[in-house]
From TrEMBL, chain A:
Record keywords: Cell membrane, Membrane, Sugar transport, Transmembrane, Transmembrane helix, Transport
GO CC annotations, alphabetized: plasma membrane
PANTHER family attached to this UniProt entry: ABC TRANSPORTER PERMEASE PROTEIN (PTHR43370:SF2), SUGAR ABC TRANSPORTER INTEGRAL MEMBRANE PROTEIN-RELATED (PTHR43370)
Name of the protein: Simple sugar transport system permease protein
Coiled-coil segments on the chain, per record: none
Taxon lineage: Bacteria, Pseudomonadati, Pseudomonadota, Alphaproteobacteria, Hyphomicrobiales
Compartments reported by the entry: Cell membrane
Transmembrane segment boundaries: 50-80, 92-114, 159-176, 206-225, 257-276, 288-306
Entries under CDD domains matching the protein: TM_PBP1_transp_TpRbsC_like
Membrane association type: Multi-pass membrane protein
Gene Ontology molecular-function annotations: transmembrane transporter activity
Length: 323, 511
C-alpha cells in the first residue's frame, strides 16, 4: 500500500494547490468571456489575500476576512472595468497597473499597520478556515482502496476548496444554461449584436468584471486564510499568471479549466514533494529546476500541444458604436 | 390606404462638424416597400440608426402608427415594432441560429423554457414566410444569404411590423438577392412595412412601391416608383445628369499582350477553382469576364497578378513567361507592365490606416522618384498624390487624410489612380465599382475606356453583368472554373445569363 499512500499524498496536495488556480481561472473566464481581458488576476488575488489577512486578524473571524477579500478584489476589478470599459483604455496596461499597485501598496500598508516586515500577524485557529471532515470518514477508512481515497483525498479539505470545485459545474451552468450566460458570451463575441438586441453592452461587461472580482477575492482569501496562516508579501507568486495560462490552455471553457488547473497543481505538488529526493535515473534534481517545471511545461504546452486557442472574438477591444 | 407606418418630422443630426441629417421629413405608408436611395455618405444609414434608437436625433419628431414616440435605445424601437437588418450582420458567429434569435428576448433567466418556445415560434415563422433555416446550425457555417435570413427572423421573432433593411444585397449573389426580394414581397403581402436602404437603382425599380432620395444629408425627393425612372433617380441622387452607360467607340485590337494557356488553380482546400482556362488579351481591347461570384474569376485574376500560385498552365506577359506555378513576384510583374486593381480594395488594395498619399504609392514605393537615398521622399510623395487627387477628382482633396475616411468610391479612385497612372501595358481589374456611387461609376468607366483607347490591354472581372456589357469588347463567361463561352457585348442578357448559370449554349437551352 506504499504506492497508494504516495498517490494519495500527491493527489491531496494537488487538490490543495489547484484550489486558488481554479478560482482565479474561473474568475478570468467570466471577465474574458465578456470581452474584457484581465492580466490583473494576480493583483486582485494578492489584494484579496491581504485584505483577508488584515480583517481576519482584527475581527478574529475567517468569514469577515473572506468578505473583506471579496470587497477589495471587486473594487480593484471595478477600477479595471472603469479603465477598460467606460474609458476604453488598454486592458493589458490597466491590468498590469493593478498588479503593480497591489504588489507595492500591500507591503507599505502591511508594514504601516502591523510592523512585521511584509506579513500580517499569524492567525489563530478561529480566524482561519478549518479542514472539514466529511461524514463517515472514520467508518469508511477501513474499506480497502475506496476508504483511504475517501478519507484522505475527498474528505478533509477546507470549505473554500469544495467551493472551488463546485464552482466548476456552476460556472458551466451559468454560462450555457442561463440568460446571463448567453448574454455574457455574446458580449465577448460580438457586442454589436448585444447592443442591437437592446441590451446594454457596458452593464453586461461590468457584470462579467464583478464576477471576476468575487472569485479572485475568494482565491485570495484561500491563500491567506486556508493555505497559510496570514498574508505574506508576494504570496500569490505568479498564481494569477498560471491561472491565465490554464484559462487559455482550456480554451475558455469551465470543465477544461478545472483539468488544466489540476495539471498545474500537480506539477507544483510534484516539485515540492521531490525537490530534495533523488529520482531514479536522473539523480538529485536542483530545487530551482523543479520549481521552474510548471512554467516550463506551460510554455511547452501552450506552444505545441493544445492546438489553436481562439479567444472570445471581441476580447480586448473596447466597444464603440460604429458611426 | 394612406395610413402611415412611420412619419419623420424635421429630423436633424450632426456628428461634430458633419451634418449627417438636415431637417429630414419622411412618410412611409403602411404595408408598402419604401426605398431610400442615396450615395454613400448621403445620410441614409444615420437616419435609420436614429429610427432604430442607435443614435438620438438632435431635433425632430418620430411618429410610429400616428403616435409620437421617443426612441432612446434599440429596446424602445423593438417595443414600437421596428426591426432592423444591419448591413454588417449583428450576429454572434459561433452561436447557433436559435441562440442568436433568442438573444435579448429570452423570456426568463433560465434558458430552457425560452428555448422550447423559440423553437416552436421559429417553426411557425418558417412556415408563414418561407424562411427555412436549421435552428441548430452555427452561424459561421451558414452562407451569407442564410445569415441574413436569421437577421430577418430575429426581427420577426420580436414581432416587428416595420422592417428596415440596410444595403441588404451588398453581400448577396444575384440568386440570393432574388430570393430576398421574394421574401420581402411575402412580408408585404402579410401586411408588414419594409424600408429598403440601398444605392442600387435596379433594386429600387424592381421591388419598391415608393422611393425617397437622399443627397448630402437632405431628403431631396419622394416618388412613386412606377412614375419615375432610373435616369431621374440617378440625377436626384448625384445632383446632376449621369450617364448610366458611357459612350465608347469601336476597339482597335493590336498585338497579344497577355496570353493565358491551360491555367489551372486550386484553392487552399484543394478544390479546383480555375480549370484549364486559356485566353488572349490584346492591346486596345477590353475583355470582360462575366460570371456569378465564386466561379473562379477571383482566382484567375490572382494567379495572373502573381499573388496566388497556379497548379499548371502558362501565362505570358508581352511575350515573356510569368512563373505562375512557381514564385511569381508581383513587384517584378509591375515593372514588366502589369497593373492590378484587386477585387477587395480593403484587404488587398489599400492599407486603410495609412494616409492617402502613402496608399497612392503602395507597391511602387521603391521607385527612385519617391526616394531620397534609402529614405522616402515625403514631399515628392505628397506632390505626386496631390496630382492624382486633382486628376481623378478624389474627395476630399486631402493627401494627408487617413484612407479609411474616404468613401468607397474615392478609395477605389485612389487604387485606380495608382495603377493607371503608371501607364501599364496590361491592366487587370476586379470589381471596379463594387460599393461605389453612381457618380463615381461613370467616372471610373470613362477612365477604363480611355485606357483602352490609349492602346492598353484591359482584363475586367465583374459580377455586375451591366458593367461587363457596357465596357467589354469581348465577353468571356466563366462557370465552375471554366470559360464556357465567348460572346460579343451586344449578346442578350438572357443568353449570357444562361451561360453564367452553367446551362450549355443557347441552342440546347431553347427547349
Amino acid at each position: 500500500m506504499d504506492f497508494l499512500q504516495l498517490f494519495l499524498e500527491l493527489a491531496q496536495s494537488t487538490v490543495r494547490l489547484s484550489t486558488p488556480l481554479i478560482l482565479a481561472a474561473l474568475a478570468g473566464l467570466f471577465t474574458e468571456r465578456a470581452g474584457v481581458f484581465d492580466i490583473g488576476l494576480e493583483g486582485k488575488m494578492l489584494g484579496g489575500a491581504f485584505a483577508a489577512g488584515c480583517v481576519a486578524f482584527v475581527a478574529q473571524s475567517a468569514m469577515a476576512g473572506l468578505l473583506a477579500a471579496i470587497v477589495v478584489s471587486v473594487l480593484l476589478s471595478l477600477v479595471h472595468g472603469y479603465a477598460s470599459i467606460t474609458q476604453r483604455g488598454n486592458q493589458i496596461v490597466s491590468g498590469v497597473a493593478i498588479n503593480f499597485i497591489v504588489a507595492g501598496s500591500t507591503v507599505i500598508l502591511g508594514e504601516a499597520w502591523f510592523h512585521q516586515g511584509g506579513r500580517t500577524p499569524a492567525l489563530a485557529e478561529g480566524a482561519r478556515f478549518q479542514a472539514i471532515e466529511l461524514p463517515f470518514t472514520e467508518a469508511l477508512r477501513g474499506v480497502p482502496l475506496l476508504g483511504p481515497i475517501y478519507a484522505d483525498l475527498i474528505s478533509g479539505h477546507q470549505a473554500l476548496t469544495y467551493l472551488a470545485f463546485l464552482m466548476v459545474p456552476a460556472s458551466w451552468w451559468i454560462l450555457y444554461r442561463t440568460r446571463f450566460g448567453l448574454r455574457l458570451r455574446a458580449v465577448g463575441e460580438n457586442p454589436g449584436a448585444v447592443d442591437t438586441a437592446g441590451i446594454s453592452v457596458i452593464w453586461m461587461r461590468y457584470r462579467g468584471v464583478i464576477c471576476c472580482g468575487i472569485l479572485c477575492g475568494i482565491a485570495g482569501a484561500y491563500l491567506s486564510l486556508a493555505a497559510n496562516a496570514g498574508w505574506t508579501k508576494g504570496m500569490t507568486a505568479g498564481k494569477g499568471y498560471i491561472a491565465l495560462a490554464a484559462l487559455i490552455f482550456a480554451k475558455w471553457r469551465p470543465v477544461p479549466v478545472m483539468f488544466a488547473c489540476l495539471l498545474f497543481g500537480f506539477l507544483d505538488a510534484f516539485a515540492i514533494r521531490y525537490q530534495s529526493t533523488p529520482l531514479p535515473l536522473i539523480g538529485k534534481v536542483p530545487v530551482q529546476l523543479m520549481q521552474a517545471l510548471p512554467y516550463i511545461l506551460t510554455v511547452v504546452l501552450l506552444a505545441g500541444f493544445i492546438g489553436k486557442a481562439i479567444p472570445p472574438r471581441a476580447g480586448g477591444v473596447p466597444y464603440v458604436k460604429e458611426r | 390606404m394612406g395610413e402611415l407606418a412611420i412619419e419623420l418630422k424635421g429630423i436633424d443630426k450632426s456628428f461634430g462638424l458633419v451634418h449627417a441629417n438636415k431637417d429630414i421629413n419622411l412618410k412611409v405608408r403602411k404595408g408598402t416597400i419604401h426605398g431610400i436611395i442615396g450615395e454613400n455618405g448621403a445620410g441614409k444609414s444615420t437616419l435609420m440608426s436614429i429610427l432604430y434608437g442607435f443614435y438620438q436625433a438632435d431635433r425632430g419628431e418620430i411618429l410610429v402608427d400616428g403616435r409620437a414616440i421617443s426612441i432612446r435605445d434599440p429596446n424602445a424601437a423593438i417595443a414600437a415594432g421596428i426591426g432592423m437588418v444591419h448591413q454588417h450582420f449583428m450576429l454572434v458567429e459561433n452561436f447557433t441560429v436559435l441562440e442568436n434569435v433568442m438573444l435579448g428576448a429570452e423570456d426568463s433567466w433560465i434558458l430552457n423554457a425560452g428555448i422550447t418556445k423559440a423553437r416552436a415560434e421559429l417553426k411557425r415563422l418558417e412556415k408563414e414566410y418561407a424562411l427555412e433555416v436549421d435552428p441548430d446550425a452555427v452561424i459561421e457555417e451558414l452562407p451569407v444569404g442564410l445569415q441574413q435570413r436569421v437577421e430577418i427572423l430575429k426581427a420577426l421573432y420580436r414581432k416587428a411590423d416595420i422592417l428596415i433593411l440596410d444595403e441588404p444585397t451588398g453581400v448577396l449573389t444575384p440568386a440570393e438577392a432574388d430570393h430576398l426580394f421574394r421574401i420581402l414581397e411575402q412580408l408585404k403581402a402579410q401586411g408588414k412595412t419594409v424600408i429598403l436602404i440601398t444605392h442600387k437603382l435596379r433594386e429600387i425599380m424592381a421591388i419598391t412601391d415608393e422611393v425617397s432620395v437622399m443627397r448630402r444629408g437632405e431628403m431631396v425627393a419622394t416618388r412613386e416608383t412606377d412614375k419615375t425612372s432610373v435616369e431621374e433617380l440617378a440625377e436626384l441622387m448625384v445632383g446632376r445628369r449621369v450617364l448610366l452607360r458611357v459612350e465608347k467607340g469601336a476597339a482597335h485590337p493590336g498585338d497579344v499582350k497577355l496570353s493565358v494557356k491551360n491555367l489551372t488553380v486550386r484553392d487552399g482546400r484543394g478544390v479546383t477553382m480555375v480549370d484549364d482556362v486559356s485566353l488572349d488579351l490584346r492591346a486596345g481591347e477590353i475583355v470582360g469576364i462575366a460570371g456569378v461570384a465564386g466561379n473562379g474569376q477571383s482566382e484567375l485574376l490572382e494567379a495572373i497578378a502573381g499573388i496566388r500560385r497556379a497548379v499548371s498552365g502558362r501565362v505570358e506577359l508581352n511575350g515573356r513567361a510569368i512563373d505562375v506555378t512557381g514564385h511569381a513576384d508581383p513587384a517584378e510583374l509591375r515593372q514588366r507592365g502589369l497593373a492590378h486593381v484587386p477585387e477587395d480594395r480593403h484587404h488587398v488594395g489599400l492599407v486603410l490606416k495609412f494616409e492617402e498619399s502613402e496608399n497612392a504609392i503602395l507597391g511602387y514605393h521603391d521607385d527612385p522618384k519617391y526616394r531620397k537615398g534609402f529614405i522616402l521622399d515625403v514631399d515628392a510623395i505628397r506632390a505626386d498624390a496631390e496630382e492624382k487627387i486633382q486628376k481623378y477628382d478624389i474627395r476630399p482633396p486631402n493627401a494627408r487624410l487617413k484612407t479609411a475616411n474616404f468613401s468607397g468610391g474615392n478609395q477605389q479612385k485612389i487604387v485606380l489612380a495608382r495603377e493607371m497612372e503608371r501607364g501599364p501595358d496590361v491592366l487587370i481589374i476586379g470589381q471596379p465599382t463594387r460599393g461605389v456611387d453612381v457618380g463615381a461609376i461613370e467616372f471610373i468607366h470613362k477612365r477604363i475606356i480611355e485606357m483602352r483607347d490609349q492602346g492598353k490591354a484591359v482584363l475586367l472581372v465583374s459580377v455586375e453583368l451591366d458593367e461587363i456589357r457596357a465596357l467589354s469588347d469581348r465577353i468571356l463567361v466563366m462557370f465552375a472554373g471554366r470559360v464556357v463561352g465567348e460572346r460579343a457585348p451586344d449578346a442578350s442578357e438572357g443568353e449570357l445569363g444562361l451561360l453564367m448559370a452553367g446551362v450549355e449554349g443557347p441552342k440546347e437551352a431553347a427547349q
